[in-house]
Fold each of these.
Amino acid sequence: MRPRAAGPAAGAALCASRCLRPGKGRAGVPRRGAAASAGARAAALGPAGAGPAPGGPPHRRLAARARSARGGVRRAGERPVGSRRPARQAAMRHARAAVDRVLHRPPPARRRQAGVADSAAEAAASGGTEALAQRVKGNAALVTGQLANGLRYVLLPNRTPPQRFEAHLEVHAGSVDEREHEQGVAHLVEHVTFLGSKRRESLLGTGARANAYTDFHHTVFHVHAPLTNCITGTPMLPQVLEALAEIAFEPQFLPMRIEKERKAVLAEAQMMNTIEYRIDCQLLTYLHAENNLGCRFPIGKTEQVKSWGHDAVQAFWRTWYFPANVTLYIVGDLDRTNDEVVALISAAFGKFPAGRLADHGPAAAAALPGADDSGNGSGANGNGAGALAVAPPVGVVGGELCGGWASRVTINGDAGSVLGEGVLAVAADGAKLRHPVRPPVVHRHGCGPLAPGELGTPPVSIFRHPLLQHFMLTVFCKLPVVSLARMSDLKYSFMVRVILSAFQFRINQRYVRADPPFIGIDLDISDSGREGCSVSMLTITAQPLHWRDTVRAAVEEMRRLQRFGLTPSELERYSLAIMRDSAQLAEQANSIPSINSLDFVMESLALGHTVMSHSEAHEAMEAVAGTITLEEVNAVAASLLTFASDVGREQEVLDLAAQPDQAGKWARPGPTRATSVVACIPAYVSAAGDAVSVGGAVGPLDARAGLGASGHLDADAINLEELEARGAAVEALAEMEAPEGAVRFDLSPDEILDALASPELDIQPLPDVELPAHLVDPAVIAGAVAARAPRFVPLEGELQQLLADPAGLADEARCRPPTNPDTGITQRRLSNGIRINYRHTDNEPKAGLLRIVAAGGRASEPREPGPGGVGAVAVGTRTLSEGGAVGEWSREQVEAFCIANLIQSVMDSNDEFLVLDVHFAATNGGLQCAFEMLHQVLAAPRWEAAAFERSKLAFVNNVQSVGKSLERASCARIMEAILGDDMRFRDPSPETLEALTLEGVRGVLQEQLHPTNLELNVAGDFDAAELEDLVLRYLGTVHADTPPPSRAALMGPAVVFEQPPPERRHITWHLRDSDERAAAYIAGPAPCRWGPFGSREPLAPLPGPPSPPPAPATNPAAAAAATAARRAHPLYATVSLQLLAEVINSRLFTTVRDSLGLTYDVSFEVTTYDRLRTGWFSVLVTSYPDKIHEALAASLAVLRDVGVSPITPRELMRAKRTLLTRHESDLKDNNYWLGLLTHLQSPDVPHKRVECLRDLRAMYETATIDDLYNAFAHFDFSDAGVFTCVGTSGRAPPPPPDRARLDAVVAALDGGAGGGGAAAPVQRGAPASMAPKDWAAAFSKAFGGAAAQASQAAAGAQQQPAAGGADPMAMLTAMLAAAQGAKLAAALGKGEGQQQGQQGQQGQQGQQGQQGQQGSAPPGER
């Protein structure tokens, strides 16, 4: 609950993590489809931009335009090259396995012809223009074809995940095809066709997931399915194909369905109204000001969505949903031949007739014979509404806008669509065709000679808004897409990737200098199938006060690279890194998930790139790498970077490039120029020029921010009027007055342009950085081995005693015990005390992860300020990361070494441990390089004063930013109420930071990094013998001159929970702001994850290895014995807590969000520890100020209700299935394996043993409802046991909460008042004379209309009286249950069958609606 970045996510009971984070149901499910992994694409071209804040600046959302990494020549699964700042490393590790690029074969119009050389790589390797002109070899496994009616299909076998496949139906029509009066109709048609399909409904419960999304250029319906229907046992592929066929070609446009989905679409439009969405819209509006991409956003215009009748909606479907405009993709582990798959496709889709012009009526058909090549239709712009243009067949036209095609089309008045709005491509015989240019727009490119009257320098467009806090400037340059089909294309893309990596490396180095003026500087060059162009983008993010210095830094580095190019060592190391990455990917070809492969096949086919197999792609990369020269790379840099390096000098640069002496100094496409410049700036700043707090995200569903229309809400649960009112309030924010103490941030376009074009910059060449061959001299390590004589020792026993026992050291079986047969885990212990756990996995072929863990962490800090006082571990860890220098090597040299050897690392501290994670390549000496770095970090770290000061400054900035975040500030307040002045579990304050010294934090960290306090965990695809040899040489020689730290010192002061008075236990505070928002926390003590429930005493070692839990038994004596054995297992507490948390989360989400509509996000979390004998729970619920107290009360009521409304077998089974499925899925992730391995040998976690991993599944499967209630009994959810904090923001505080009205309800019912719940299960009830109508009236009086409607659902129900006094929270729970449509008796656990039926119905709605939120969240996104 710390208001800072959390530790590693826990997917199962054994992960080394302080938090149990069960899934949040359907909340926050990210959008599926082409944009789902766009973040990985955007990052694929090199290191992320530097900056102190994790997550990056807002401009990265624009990268979610689903651009493939053209500049990076990426393949499926390919990773970025370059080291990143530690704050970004965690996200990078998760993105590593994502698909960043597939090199594709051309579209059907230009399919591979006979005679294409398969030896292109070999030819290119020999050099010469002719060799580079040869076509690359396409992937023979990729099958493309076309049915007689024009429908195209793409098949690709893919074995990951096994026994499953992806089927995506792409309709080549999106928002860009809408006419002026149709904005949003493509999205509405998607909703109606998808959710109106009965055959799609038949997929529910079969193990398949179905969804859909709409984007600028297409609409996609997709299904992820098993090979076999889990209900019927029949093959799923025919069923899936029939469902997709019905969705696209046999929809029922029922009026009721249209109205229902109209409401859902309108609600989505309101919920997307975030400041992030507004920024995206502004960027795209100016980027594509000359065409419809700048004004046809997929979500559409709400006033138009409200107005369309049945005919208008169906007309769009009739126009664009025809076979020739559709492509079917099937990728996966199929159990039949390609011919059999094609036969199934033909059976499902071949029956639909090809679209024809005559389908649009006699008038349209009559237009065909007399079609005019130069224009179509009538009207001022040459295009009548719905006019049809006659075009040559696609095979004749080709895929590019050029030559004769340009003369045969009409450009509409605003230079938008190629054929005009809503215009089709039609063959000479009247057959409708897929448009040859997708999306059908014309771009103004930033290359070539200036057109007559064209301004060389675009104006600066400014978007100013009160909710913005940072200055963000983006310089765009649009270029034509060049299909990657030949070896020369591959070579060019290779060079672009080198350039981008070099630029970001230089920016990183500039950032680590003292007092950096910028937050982030990022350069991206990539293709976009979504937009039909290549986009170069320089994004600059800064505090408003430093905007000019940041622009100067960015322009200086752009000019330096453009003028002087790369150094020889930069070209060498980045080329080496790219090739090592390519080799590793060739090994990982079979581990790329089908969904990722399919997404990039779709994207790159749209771009005309050639699909290559990973092995063939690597061979081609090797061939072109040998032909690249420094002069060629620098010529490409000179050309591509001028769009930002020479703003204001466009014509001058063109004239320079035309000089005869410039031959060879420029590459295609010649000097580039900016096509748009957009500044997004805050409306107000403080008097000192700093950002001011004017609220957080505007919209209620931040996870939905983005420009693609996706996600299907349940219209029946939508309060559209309320959402529209909220949207109107958001719109009014743009005109808000200045916050108190703030001044208007006035920047003119000329000021920004002058900063970009400043001639007063002294640019000098960059000195070359020596690339170390080794971080540790082999001779030095050999001498250390001879001197230290490192060896393995027995796992158990005191180290000094073991070293003094020659017989024990000679016992090979004790020193090198065999691999555990149940888990595959091997354990070792070094003679210097370092413990090792490793496991071989195939999750990432020829690569892996290793983790060094040191016990201590922030909990070991003193509670008082001082040179090495509170905050020392946090600041010391960041100081090492910021410095980055080790031994004799500078940070620049260490980063260069890591880049060249594909090493990516992050060092961090949490409450209990220091953690250093390293990703390594297991080929070409990569594992040894990783151990060389580990050795230097442990044995010879350099503590630099500048890095120490930067670290403190970063924490100061972070503390200052807490007050600008409603959630973080509320969290900080409630943690202060719980822990008092104990700052170890919060970020250090400026006062404590000031007391720290470099020597003080150095001493604290060196104590924790003592060899006897270290544990190494390794998971990946490596050679075990090599690993053990490297462990002995590089870790076994690490030595400390100081004695080992005591276990008590590493444990730190005891954690004491405060017992404050009520006014400090229940906090309400307000943030004056323009944005009306609210967040509430409920928190309190929680049981420990290890040891018996209720005990907080130190744990003693287990007497022996634990036994697997017995199977459930029916015999009472056997059942009792099985329960006792299960509860004696070390995993019992953790498993019970996780299952209970899963059940509570499900109830919270279903009740507080779905049924009552009081929140858009609510979650229950249990924070537990491995070493510390403490823990706490928390509930976070976000809402609006007028609802937050009811949301808080409802959440608290749900917690207490667990003790009253029994957990059902169905709930337990669902929780088990969720956690086990997550566990099985996460086992495919090496990072998850590290969590399982961590602490297996820690003396402070004596109950975590290898046998726990063996028994994890069995412990989940044998858990009972009684186990969950055993865990529940150790929570205190009463008023005296919980802490609450309600934070609100707005112009004025809301009315104070009136807790008395709950008691008034009770008084009205039975004359008594009760407060709070109890820790153990309690009974609730009302007098026997109390009828349901009285409940409804009482709650109506207390809570108003919303509760009245909810409680009316209980009318007529038979209330069973129960013993005990009435509790207001418990009675509120009854109202909540009524709001779900269940009888009160069912809410009291008297009607389990009825409750299960309701839950099943809600689950079905979730699959229909919220599965419509683009599929389930992947493991790393839950």
Amino acid sequence: MGANLILTQTQQLTVQTINIAAMFLAVVLHHFEYTRNPTGSGILLFYWLFTTLVNGYRLWVGGNIDTQHFGLFTTTYVLSCLMFILESCKRPSKQAIQLRDDNERLCPVSTSNIFGKLAFNWMNPWIQFSSMNRWWNIENNVSAKFEKRWTEELQKSNPSLLRTLMLTYPIMGQLLIGGLLKLLHDTVQFAQPLLLGILMEWVSGHTALTQQIPEPLYKGVSIAFCMFAVSVLRSLLLQQFLYRTTVGSSRLRSALVNAVCRKSLHVSSTPEVKQMAHIIKKDVPILVSLFQHIHSGWSFALQVSLGLILLYQSHGFLGWSGMSVMLLSIPVQLLFQRWLRRYRKAYDESQHRRLCAMRNILDGIHTIKLYAWEIPFMNKVVDMQNSGELGALRRIGAIATAKDSLLSKEYLPFTAAVVTFLAKTLIQQQQPSIEAMLVTLVIFDLLQKPFSNLAKFSELLIRSGNALHQLQTFLSQPEISPVVQNDIQLPNAPLIETHQAAFAPALQSVDLSIRKGELIGIVGSNPSALIHAILGQLPKTQGKMTLRGSIAYVSRNPWIFNSNLQDNIVFGQPWDPLFYRNVLDLCEISEEQSLDSQKARVSLARALYSRADIYLLDDPFRHMTPQLARRLFHRVIQGHLRNKARIMVTHTFSCLHQLQRIVMFWDGEVVMDGTFGDLMSKQRGRLYHIMAANDSNNRPMSTLDTSGGYLITHNENEYDESLPSACSSSYIKSCSVTAVTIMIFTLMISQIAKVGSYLWLNYGLSVSNDKAFYFGTFALIGLTSTMFHTIQCMILWFLCAVRSAKVLHTELISALMNAPYSFFNSTTSRNLLHKLGADLKAVNLELPVFYYRYLRIATSGTAAIVVIAYSTPFFLLSLIPLGFYYVYIRRHYCDASLRYLNLATSSEERVDSTLMEMIDGAATIRACKQTNRFISDGQGKIADNQRAYFLSEACNRWVAVRAEFLGSLVLFGAALLAVLDVVYGSTPIVDSGLVGLSVYYAMSIPQSFEHTIRLYRDIKLKIGAVEHVKEPVPHEQNDDINTALSATWPAYGRIEFQKYSSETLQNATLTINPGERVSIVGGNISPDLFGEAMVSSGTIDIDGIDIHKISLYELRTRLTVVPSETILFHHCTLRENLDPFMQHGDLDIWEALSPVQLDVHSLDIPIMELNMTKEQQRLFGIARALLRRTRILVIEEADEMDVETDEIVQQILHQQFSGCTRVIITKKLDTVMESDRVLILDQGRIDTFDSRCAGRGDRVSQAYSNYDGSNHQDGYTTVPASARSSLQAPTRYWNSNDHF
């Protein structure tokens, strides 16, 4: 039988000739495939690769090749190599490939061959930034497929979001492919301990003292090559699994966010912003994380089974004893994770309270500066951090120390291996060989990660249940039902017509008929319900509603989106520049002002520009001053829209008599439909009751929104793409250089002890044959390493992290409190709060961990290289080229990764802000029929975020493949040099244990290389937070001057300006006598008196002392100002708001509160609980002045004040401050007439300074017009100068209940 299989020479020659002919034919066929297929065939590439490798191996070994046919075989081998090279080359963009549409921008993955995909070579141009200007098209059918599946699922009796996700193939397909890759990876990785054992056996058998014939060299080299191949294959499989997981999770997030985006505009009841923020920022990420870890369950079972099999082969059933240690780690890790989550939450809550207090302080920083309250408020914030965040940080550090000491990758497998060795030694009385012990260590190292992942997966599975329920509940909500709209057919047909219409849960049996040109006011209980019903936001339960014509809507809370003024007004309507200008003029909108300052007018202008037939106005003047509201009502509502159907909800009396028709609702029913006279005669009492209740509900409260919002999560500062040494040194100094030095020393001792334990494992038996002493010493050295590791963690958290948190926060708060007020005008509160929130959190919680991990892995890698070099010294020669390549990929990766992280972060913020805008303006968007436009815009932003996220993760895969390949080369070099040393070395006996230990350490190098590069990137990412916190802040002038002043200064209150020039005054020379009451019109001199203005020349003397020669603290504590807007500090008590220094007793405080007539029963009550109105806040500001009792009082009169409050203020000024010098910044003619003298300023120059200005009302009015612009928010905007009338004496007040 065997003889029949031997070919004759002629037959062999024929076979080789046919092979060569087949090769040439393959070349021709490959030419056609090469020019007509955009990518190389993966099957062909692997075929030619394996052919090349097998034939090359045969040539190297010698094989069974006849010398006569060696030339033909070599020709075949060369052709196969050529075919592999040609198939691997990049395809030309010509011929059939050119037929593809050039405008179709495909993802670079689709144009890469199989090896390019495995090695992520398609990322090379994106790493070099050469292709950043050319984005590819994102596959947008994932969201469409998901929406289709979900729509079908909603038709079922028991819809399931999870089932829908599982049936969406673009998501499920990546999950299945990832599962297959995970299966192969988990199986292949357990070949490493087997190969390690085989290599050590080969070394043991290949010695000079053995009587057996040593095995050939190629077998040892083959083992080394197999270890290299397994390491590379494991890396490729793992990175492809992570890549597929990234693609699938990206598609999942895109599908869910798009679904939420669409649902938010179609759901019948508009969701709250907080609810949507929780869904987007909490629920969706949890489901995405679950998708990424979904394979952890079955992977754990597979890896544990393979580990048990290998342990059984090495130690029998006793090998499973160490597995008990691994199993016990699961509940311990779950407990640690639970504690960490609890204290991280406590940290976030404490930080949130501090940030709310800081936001309040920044809002009132002008008051703090003017009253010189910087020190107590700084101490207050520092105490809040010390008592809250630092306490939570210490607890987090304690738990992290315990967790890292007991469950880390270095010490949990070590403990499990020690238990296994002791069990075999004590029970079987057998000494495990060094080969078995090292193989056992490798097995437990491989098992540590699945045990860790299982604990995370278990916790994630529990949390994802609630997230899935919340998301499914939202996506299952009923959508808005469009109201029937008909074209206008008859001239007198009603535009809105209802017959016995009921809308749940607000309206019942509504019969209304509204025609063109009617102006109808809606009052009563829940009057906005009718508008919501017309917009379709309330489900109709019975009756009929018909609309004829288009609708424009002005919401109760003005809404604008993140764009320019033109886009907010035109809002998708046809562009008409002339009409656009007319709308701006009608609504008194300035293109030079910010959108936020005129939101209410922009909202009205948007409705006006739409040229609709029906206008729904839900209290449109609620956020405007009465003067502006009165003008716009007459000019726009009664004027320009006089031929339109107008429905206006109002909560004030002033405009009711001007409405043609008034409809009053009570408990969902129409109780009156008639004129203003009918209303007052029939429903007067009920109307007054409702209006009073509405006024109370709409009254501005002093409560603070504690939602947090952007205070912690949003990041508007770009990450720095360099690692400034100055930032690192600043951070180390804040941590304490001594503590950092001790931490690094203990880290080195820990690594030395760990290496020593493994060396003792190899050489210990040569010292003593006592097994108890042998394993006891081994465990003791390992315990020493763990002890130093624990000390290192304690130093990290309790000395470095806590000290850094305290030092950086205190320095930042001190710098902010000492900054001039102009700094806060030029710097947004959001930037400052970001420093105090997100930046400090990164420095406190993330940066210490990154530095610790980086140093730990770096020292571990250094220890591995030392062990390898000790075993095979020639290995050091390979470190030079490997080191250069390591630095090269690290530099390119960090630059690219940081850039794409910037893109991902900024694009994610744009997605979040766009979605929040859509939710806020959902009613306006639907009313203007712009739903599809906003959904499309949101999908575009989600696609941009998906691309940036994809590139960021692809960068991680790119560097992981190359770093792990570099580590695989180190592994191959260690194994190969060990083999060569065994065969060609000068030492007759090579220690197999030392070789095994060297290779064991080399196995950790691939992951160490990748982790150090990633951690280096993370440090560069977060060190920018230190730079932000340490950014220089300007310091106030004259704040460090020490001048001895009399305790009674100023004793008289005489103010003299001598040729004084500054930002607000020009060459001013004047004198204000003691006790004089002076009104100032057309300017404000309080910045000059309190040292806030930049002085050009001249002096200001108070009682003969130049105020610029004394410290700002001394100056501001000797003067008193009552700002136009009184700020309350909500995190403080009533006492602390009046006297932060705690210098006054209870009696003094009660005496200050008595004249202002505030209903207060306790001085230690939190100020938030008082719910003060604006008028009460104004009186509280007067109480602050009464408590200080200085000789000079500066009062900035408020723009809005009711009659009663103003009378109290005037009475206090006459009775309590009659002996003081009173400087009043006013806009009221009556205040001017009651003053001793009046200072009129014209663009900073003194126009008039004489007594009372009697008969000069025109001069005062002119100065007022020149001074008062319209650069205020709608709630405080006055009439522009061109349309402003002169001040009138008797009618200077308006009622706070009136908006007209």
